[in-house]
Structure formats: structure tokens, C-alpha cells
Amino acid sequence: MIASVVGTNTKKTSRRAVYELLRKRVLTMELPPGAALSENELAAALGVSRTPVRESLILLAEEGLVQVFPQVGSFVSRVDPVKVADAQFLREAVELAALDDLPPVLDPSLVRDLETNLERQRQPGIDLEEFFALDEAFHQGLLRLSGHANAWATVVAAKGHLDRARRLGLYDASSPSAFVLQHTEIFDAATRGDAQLARTAMRTHLRAVFDDVERIRARSPELFSSNSTSVPTRRSIAVWE
Amino acid sequence: MIASVVGTNTKKTSRRAVYELLRKRVLTMELPPGAALSENELAAALGVSRTPVRESLILLAEEGLVQVFPQVGSFVSRVDPVKVADAQFLREAVELAALDDLPPVLDPSLVRDLETNLERQRQPGIDLEEFFALDEAFHQGLLRLSGHANAWATVVAAKGHLDRARRLGLYDASSPSAFVLQHTEIFDAATRGDAQLARTAMRTHLRAVFDDVERIRARSPELFSSNSTSVPTRRSIAVWE
DNA sequence: CGGGCAGAACTAGTATACAAGTCGCTGTCG
DNA sequence: CGACAGCGACTTGTATACTAGTTCTGCCCG
Description:
- Chain A is mainly α.
- In chain A, about 65% of the residues lie in helices and about 5% in strands.
- The first copy, chain A, is built from 11 helices and 2 strands.
- Chain A has a two-stranded antiparallel ribbon.
- In chain A, strand 1 and strand 2 (about 75) form a beta hairpin.
- In chain A, helix 4 (about 80-100) runs antiparallel to helix 10 and helix 8 (about 160-175) crosses helix 10 (about 195-220).
- In chain A, about 35% of the residues are buried.
- Residues about 1-10 and about 235-240 of chain A have low confidence and may be disordered.
- Chain A binds a DNA duplex through helix 2, helix 3 and helix 11.
């Protein structure tokens, strides 16, 4: 039972399985900011040795989602507003550049995919996690219109902090309807060929996260990193607080 | 003697030392595209165990600089023109967005740093590696002007393929004078407040790499990945070819 | 009862051992 | 002479052992 946590019949290496599992749990806040991640403990819980766990933590540390303190411990990093802003800038730059680079006539099948995606977003009472996945696919689809879908992978790898902030904002709003309207506006402008309006709408849409950060930080400051150079505390204190 | 290759008195972990060494050697083509990287061999040569070598290769693989084929081998990836274009798009998007976001009045000390940098670039007979470092610092400095220096780290991590292509172009041109002129033009326009000209000049500057790729690929196709899905060959064939 | 020091218990970093798979070479058989 | 089977030398993936360091804990002493 224990050994099956990472997936029994996957062809992929266990490192990849562990990595994807941990990344998902961090991004969904199932592993909250500040949580201690013991290599030994994770290895035992997932039924693998330290090696794949450790390699996964190294990759997550490279993304900024985890902080490793040698001889002390590894911890889920707190959401850093500075990194949120950095990732937002990068993302906005890429998505706006893609809008600028739209071809005169769009690929009809890609446009249809986006329409289908938007329809799904409009489902009443949609699960927030499902909406989040559709949101990601929508933006990736927009990049695809201009032939720059590959850039999305880099953006994804860099926007871990941003995603956690967005998710907090989404849970807080409890309804994604405002985002759906913005998505529709961007899509309509892009397909109509109104690059200027598409740009403006995209900017507004992507910058909404800044409001979320401020609002949620006031209520739940423990999720965010403070200015003080905080030194990690040992497990017995940090683990379930 | 052998054990000192990774650095004797560094405080950093040996993983970091190995990673930085390998990354540098790949980017400078000292380890040419297609070269086989045996974990055991590297470990022996660097005087460390497989562990830090392996973890470094995983990180390099994540950047796309190395390809790992389980049970077959690890190889320096060939320069992929598609990935060069992807990285170029990302980089251009970020640098142009930064130029759009320049404050009305620039930080004088940052401007001075850029001027000093440009002067150094103009040294006659400058070493190409030194120029490359100055080039990197120049572009990072431009980002700093708009307060988005942190985005540079992400760009750097994503532009491994691009950097190798740029380096090939630089070695091919044998003189960086054309680049220096472009840098000067961008800098002058930015400090003069002419955002439009700065954008145009930056675009031209950053897109020069496409010409390099075409020209060098015609002469040295073995450095680039071909369209065919090439399967790696074993060491005994690939190693010193 | 309080303070300080020693050691237990934990951490990650590194080294080594083992497992599982790929592929080239060679010897043998058709 | 050619095809093929099997052995062996390699590869990376995973597990385990050991090292060096940090921190909490609890005993001992004042």
C-alpha cells in the first residue's frame, strides 16, 4: 500500500513520479509554505529511497519552490511577493509579445480549441482545480496561436511562486467568473485582430494577481516570506503549525 | 592533482562546483555538442563520486544542455535551432518589456556602470570570452535600469542553446565590433529616453543570432540537431569524433 | 529550581553497492 | 562465409552506508 503512493505501473522513473507529486502538492498548497520536507521521511512515505526524493528536491529548489539548508532541513518556500512580481513580469512580457506576433490569419483548429476551452470555463459551479487547469491550457493555447507554444514551458518552470499566489486568489474569490470574462475579452480581441485591445485586456488580466497578494497577505501573513532574514526552525516546531 | 579539478578550497558543495564547471564547458563548446558524458568517467576525472556528477547532469538536462538516455548514456545536446528560436523569443520579449518599463529618470550609478562596461567592450583586440562576459553583464544591466534584474536569471537558465549559437557566431565573426556598435546604439537611445529607437535597435541586435545559426549550420552541421529523430550511438563510436 | 553542557537525534552531502537495461563483440553453428 | 546466440562491458536508476554538521533534550551541577 505504502509503496504504491508514487504509482505502481508507471513506466517513468520514480524520480519523475516523486518530482511531479511533490510539485503538485506544493503548488496546490497541500504542502503549505514553511512545511518541513525531510528526505528520509518523504522516502519512507513514498516507498522509495532517498535518492529520487533528494533529486526531486534539488529540482524543486532550482525552481524556487523549496529551500534547502544544508545540515538543517528542506522546507517549502514561503510565497515571495518579489518572486511573484518577477514571474508576473516575465509572463506578461512573453504573453504580450506573443499577441504582438499573431499571424494575420489564425489556425482555425487552434481557435476552435480555445472556444471549447472557454465553454468549459463557463460551466456553473466548476471545480476550482479544474478551472485552474483550463486557465493554464487557455494561456498556452494563446501562445500556440503565434507559434510560440514552447516558450510556455519556461514560463511554467519560472512561475511557481506566481501560481501559488494565483491559486490563493482563486480560492479566495471562490468563483472564477471574473477571470472567465477577462479570458473571453482577450480571446475576442485576438480573433477579431484587435491587437491593441488584446494587449490591454491581457495586461489587466495578468496584473490582477497583485491585488490578490496584498489582500491575502493581510489575512494570512504566514504564507508569505517576510523581509527579515528568517532562519528555518527545526521540525519539532515547524511541522504542523 | 586530479582531485583538485573541482576546486580545492571552495566553500560550496562539490555538486555546485561540478555543475558550474560542466555548464561552462558545455557553453564554451569545450565539451562539444554530441560529446558523451559518462557519470563514472566524469566522477573519476573530477575526483568526486558519481552522486554530485549525476545531480549536475540532471540539472543540465533540465536546462536542455544535456540529454540523458537511461541505460544508454548522457550526451551534450546538439544545438537545436528550434530551441534557439524559443529562447530568442523569450529573451526578446523580456528585454523589450524592460525597455518599455524604463523609469522617467534613470539611476545614475547604474548608467555609469553601463558606460564603464561599454568602454571595456571597446578595448581593441579584446578576448572573445571576456567580451561575452561583458555582453551578458551589459544586458543584465539594462534590465536593472527598469528594476527587473531578477528576470535575467530565468532568461539565463532558459537560453543555453541560444548562448551556444551566439558564441559560435562570435567566434565566427572573430571581432565583436559590430555588436559593440549595436550596444552603444541601444544604450544611447535608452538614456536619451527614445524608447522606440531602443526597442528597434534591441530587436535587430537580438535577432542577429538567426543569421549566425544559418551560416554556421551550413558549414558545421554536426553541431546542430537534425530533423530526424537521431538515436544516440554508444561511446566507442561517438567519443572523439 | 535554573543554567549550562554533553550527547542523542536529526539534517543534508557524499560515497559506494547493487539492479536492470542496452549494445558490441566473439565464437559457434548452420 | 554468414547469421545468430550469448557473454561481457558498459550505461543510468535506485538503494544503502557513511560523513560532517546542526539543534533539540535532558541530565547534572550549582
